[in-house]
Amino acid sequence: MSSNRPAAVVLLSGGLDSATTLAIASDEGYDCHALSFSYGQRHEIELAAADRVARQLDVRSHRTVRIDVDGFDDLSTSALTGHQRVPKDRDATQRENGIPSTYVPARNTIFLSYGLALAELIGARDMFIGANAVDYSGYPDCRPAYLSAFERMANLATKAAVEGATIRIHAPLIDWPKTKIIRKGLDLGVDYGQTHSCYDPDPEGRACGRCDSCLIRRDAFAALGMPDPGR
Amino acid sequence: MSSNRPAAVVLLSGGLDSATTLAIASDEGYDCHALSFSYGQRHEIELAAADRVARQLDVRSHRTVRIDVDGFDDLSTSALTGHQRVPKDRDATQRENGIPSTYVPARNTIFLSYGLALAELIGARDMFIGANAVDYSGYPDCRPAYLSAFERMANLATKAAVEGATIRIHAPLIDWPKTKIIRKGLDLGVDYGQTHSCYDPDPEGRACGRCDSCLIRRDAFAALGMPDPGR
User: Fold this and answer.
1) What is the mean pLDDT of residues A191-195?
2) What percentage of chain A has pLDDT greater than the value 70?
3) How do residues B39-88 score in pLDDT, each as one tens digit?
4) Winning range, highest mean pLDDT, from A41-50, B26-35, B221-230
5) Domain annotation covers residue A229
6) At A67, which CATH number?
7) Is A118 on the interface with B (CB under 8 A)?
C-alpha cells in the first residue's frame, strides 16, 4: 500500500495524550509512523496499549526502541522506572508543585533524537509529540521553549537538514487542558478504552486510580460528564 | 575512592579523536565518566578499543549503551552499520566532498542525548565530544553551529538546568588538524596503539588501511614522521 500523504513520526506512549496526538496527525493528513520506547519503566503495560492504539488508528508503521538501561542503572532512580514510590492521592495544587518524582532525565530529548533519526530514514519532515505544559507543568522537556530549541538543533543535525529539508516538531496539545484533549480525541474517533496512563498499574495492568496521571484523567472525564473508559 | 574534581561525561568511541578528547578532559581537571555506544556498526571492535582507552586513561566510570537497532533496521543503510560498502583509497579531495556514506542519521544527537541523561544522573555539568569539523567536514552533526544548538537545547531540557546548572558541550578538537590532535595526545600520554579508527576492520580487528579514517590517520602520523601505531 503506498500513499501520497506526507510521512510523519509520532511518538506514541500508549497514553491518552499521545493517542490523541496520533489521531490529530492522521486527521491533518499525515501518514503516521509511530515510535514507542521501552526503557525499564514500571509500565511495560503501556507498550501493549501503544500497540492497540497504533492498530486502532491505522498507522503506517510502528517501531518500539528498547533502550538499554543496564549501562544506565541510575535511570531507575525515577519513580517511573522502578525504585521510588509513585506519589498517590495528590490534589491539583500538589500535582502542580515543582518537578515530579516521575521525571526521567533527558527522556524527551532521547525520544525525540530517535524520532529525528527515524524521520531522516523515512524521509519525514514532521514529528509529533504529545507534550503538554498544562497538566505536567513540572517537566522541563514539555515546555514550548524546550521544544523550539530541539527543533532548531534538529535543523542543524542531519543530512536532510543540510540538503534543505525543514524539520518541524508539532506539539498540538502543548497548551490544552485535559478536557479539550479528550473532546478532540473523541471527535476523531480515539477509543480511550485502549489507552493506558497509570504510573503504577497492578500486575494485571489495571490502573491504580490514585497516581497523578490517573487523577488528572479521572477529573477530566468527570468534568465532561463521563466515566474514564481507560484501563 | 572519592574526588573533588568536577565530573564530566566524555563520549568515547575508542578512536583517535575521542581518546585524545578524554585525555584533554582529564588534563583539564575533570573526573571523567566515559560513555560508549554499540549500535550495530561493523566495528564492534571499536568497543574493545574504548575499553582499553578508558582503562589506560583511568576514567572514573565507563558505560556502554547498546542501542537497539532491531526496531530500526534502516539505520543499517549507512556504510558504518553494515549494508553498504565502505569507500576505499579516496584522496583528500574526494574525502572532503559532501556527506560521507558513513554518515549515520542523527548519531551525535542520540549520543549526546544519552550523555545529557548521564550528566544529570551523576551531577556533571560538562560533556566532551571528539567532534572535528576539519577531517570530517561532511558530517552535519560535527559542526560548531550544531553543537551550540545542542547546548542551548540541553540547557532547557533537564531538571538540573531548570535548577540553575549550566551544561557545557566541549569539543576541544573541533577545528584542529589531525596532526595537532595527535601531538596533543602524545603530550598527554595517549597510547594510540590502543585506539581503533578503521571503518572496515578484518575479523581479527586489524585496520584495513584504505578507508577514509585509516588514510587520514596514516597521513597525519606520516606528517609527524612516525608510523601509525594503531590497530
Assistant:
1) 94
2) 83
3) 766 567 888 999 999 999 989 999 988 877 655 655 545 555 555 566 77
4) B26-35
5) no
6) 3.40.50.620
7) yes
Which of B35, B62, B68, B148 to substitute to test the interface with A, most A CBs within 10 Å?
Answer: B68
- Which residues of chain B lie closer than 8 angstroms to A121, CB-CB? 72, 74-75, 77, 105
Enumerate residues 6+ apart whose C-beta is below 8 A from B138: B96, B97, B98, B99, B100, B103
pLDDT over threshold 60, residue A81: no
Q: What is the radius of gyration, based on Cα positions, of chain A?
A: 17
Residue A125 lies in a domain: yes
Which helix or strand (DSSP H or E) is residue B64 part of? strand B61-66
Nearest to B117 among A70, A106, A121 (CB): A106
- Which chain A positions have a beta carbon within 8 Å of B71's beta carbon? 63-66
| pLDDT, tens digit, 9 for 90 and up, residues A91-137 | 776 665 566 666 778 899 999 999 999 999 899 999 999 999 886 66
Q: Classify residue B201: in a domain, yes or no.
A: yes
Host domain of residue B58: 7-223
Nearest to B150 among A143, A146, A153 (CB): A153
Domain contains B194: yes
Cell of B78: 549507512
CB distance A19 to A128 below 8 Å: no
Mutate to test the interface with A, among B159, B166, B169 (most CBs of A within 10 A): B159
Separation in Å, CA B165 to CA A172, A224, B18, B53, B96: 29, 41, 25, 29, 38
Strand, coil or helix: B16: helix
The model's pTM is 0.88
Number of independent structural domains in chain A = 1
User: Does the predicted interface ipTM exceed a cut of 0.85?
Assistant: yes
| A225 in B contact zone (CB under 8 Å) | no
Please list, residue by residue across B63-88, b when 16 or more beta carbons sit within 10 angstroms of its beta carbon and e when fewer do. bbbbbbbebbebbbbbbbbeeeebbe
Predicted confidence (pLDDT) per residue in B178-202, tens digit: 999 999 999 999 999 999 888 888 8
